[in-house]
Fold this protein.
Amino acid sequence: MGLHPYLALAAALFSIGLFGVISRRNTIGILLGIELMLNAVNINLVAFARFTGAVAGMVFTVFTISITVAEVALGLAIVILIFRVRHTVIADHLDLLRG
Amino acid sequence: MNDPAPLALAALLLPAASFLILSVAVPLRRSGRPGAGVSILFSAGALASAVSSWALSPPGAWSLRLWDWLPAEGGALASVGVLADAQSTAMLVLVAGVSFLVQVYSLGYLADEPPASLGRYYAYQSLFAFSMMGLVLAPNFLQLFICWELVGLCSYLLIGYWYQRPEAARAAVKAFWITKAGDVGLLIGIVLLWRQAGTFDYIRLLQLADSHLLPLGGLGVITFCLYLGAVGKSAQFPLHVWLPDAMEGPTPVSALIHAATMVTAGVYLLTRTAWLFALTPHVLALIGWVGAFTALLAATLACVQSDIKRVLAYSTVSQLGYMMAAIGAGYESAGFLHLLTHGVFKALLFLGAGAIIHAVGTNDIFAMGGLARRMPQTLVVFLVGTLSLAGIPLFAGFFSKEQVLGAVWFGGLTVPFLMLALAAFLTAFYMFRVIFIVFFGAPAHEAAVHGGAGTGHAHDAPLLMAIPLWILAALSMVIGTGFALSHPRAEFEAPGWITPLAVGAALAGILLAWLTYHRRAIDAEALAAAFAPIRAAALRRFWLDDLFEGIYRAILGLARIIGWIDRYLVDGVVNLLSAWTLQFGDRLRGIQSGLPQDYVYAIALGALLLIVWNQWPR
Amino acid sequence: MSLEPIAFAGLAVVLLASALAVVLTKNLFHSVLYLALTLVGTAGIFLTLDAEFLAAVQVLLYAGGVVTIVVFAIVVTERLVGDRITQTSRHLVSGGVAALALLAVLLVFLRSVPLPATRPAMTGDLTRAIGVAVLTRWVLPFELLGVLFVTGLLGAIYFARPDE
């Protein structure tokens, strides 16, 4: 079937994830968008690994999935903390970095 | 030892020491009379040194002492020192002598001044003596210029001695400003000369000129620029306007600076560098013409003055014109001789006027009258001075004035000669006008008197003022009779009719004054009406002051325009740029929203652009 | 195999539809559920690529673990209904533009790149190969991963401690 469709699928998934990151107001929603993007990356890795015969791609996918899980956990912990302090999870309100 | 240079140096350094002492030892200066005493003492020492150095300087010999000021390889860039020859030591004696007499006189004249002011006065006097002698003894143009400027500064300080009076302050600034205009020319001339010849030194330049190694191209411009300095300092037309106003200073100051010494610095410069000017005959002719014109113009102006010091001021301008005319004719020794005699009798006249002013309390001659009875001694000395000025035989000015006239005639400047002859007539007229009005008759009106006793109670001068007067009067007589008995041989053979012409013109002037102001045979008003247009112009000082004021205002206006341009255009551009930068920065700041989503968006766009740019089909 | 394109097409539709649902749904809880569906879809893609082990890992960790965590976070922050993305904020338009542009560029780029059209034959058990690779060639990252987990665990405990 070829590698193209898989990569196209991953690209589409990535774009959707990017859209989610940019346009969601809720911080947790942003994290969900990041999840989508990471998934697209994983699909890419596995597809390449399968079509070029290098197993390293799949090993790498294991690693990224694991790290993503840890990152989500800690990200949500931070979101909860921010909620405790500032009583909001809307990203637009968290603009302390404003110049 | 018969080397005049160390003695000249001593004469130069004694007033400097006096100035330093009075500047540094503030309590001494503030105490007034003790400070004055120090200055007078040092001045006496300077006079003694000057006379000794003059005695040791026969004509034709010179003695030089130099110290490197800016040492460099291949010879000093600048040096200072003393150059003592017959001319400079003679001038030195004049400066030291008049300075000493004026300082003694001032002790009496300014007896009512607060001690601190008096100390300041004597400090300035010492500084002036030092700088004038530095100018006289200068061996090169550089020292000359420095002392020239210092002398101008002292003039400013002393004219504005009573600085609380606005007229005095204005007069001081005016003097400084006008002479500065001439000084710019002098500076340019000196620099150009250095560029031409490579040295500032008189002796070296003289050697260059004598051996025809001095390039002549552009020398006319150089000498003209040097002459400009003399025009300013020696009050030639049109830069003579500061001298009458300088009479706002104390009368002894007028006697010293604006009669005998500072104003003659220009004449002295030209005398000293006459060999340079001899190479540019056109400039010399100009000098002669301007000098004669100045003499006539000032004499005319003196005829309409009612302030006794103003009469003497214009008389000084007139006599300076005489000296310059002689130089312009090519016989600078005649001019220099007149400088020396004029220094004596003009100082005498000013000090005499000071005695009158001190006694009566006003400068207005029409508020004085009949002083002959109350101030006989003053009449005598004043008469001696006046006769010298008018050029009557046996008095100091006679021989030198005749020399000047002869030089101008012999030098071929005919029209200037006629102007000078007419000026001689007018000189006698206006001086005797003053004498008849002040010393004889009755006051025309009461004037506001300040400090003096008024005409009714005038008295002869106290001893401190009288002694210098008598010394100067005696000196004038001695010089006059001395010349009558054995006069120096002139460089030219003057025609025989010059002497009778000169004396005749003087006597005619005296006669006219006697008829008009003593006998009242001729009505003064009718006489004035006969020359009404000239008289009106003279009363407006020939509009020269207005011209200078106009120039001054124009320059101020130009300065304001330039200031406006600087503030609004030049600064404006810079301010505009900075404002734009600030605004742009403010707007740019909006990018930093603090929201991570915006930053992700930016990253995505950036990555997009990179990909597109990288993959753009070639 | 002609089954493959059909399977792929079906899974792709499910995947993309659920992904769109994740980013467009107003209700956050619904969003999370759609995310779970997306993750399962991804696992299906892995299966079509003969990566059974990864599909299992994906389902276990992602669809199981991550979704659970996110649900807990949502419950804690009590914002089930929040986003009004129908509100035309600048984020919406700019996000759409950026995403579409990126997609377009990537697709165009992919068209021009030569890529293998057929997959090579499977040589041996893929899972075994992964296991061997992890424990021989890639053992260092594997161990570091363990350190990372411990660190994450400690961090999470620290964050979640009660305020004193």
Q: What stands out?
A: Chain A touches chain B through 14 residues (CB under 8 Å). The helical segments of chain A are 4-23, 27-52, 56-86. Chain A has one domain: 4-93.
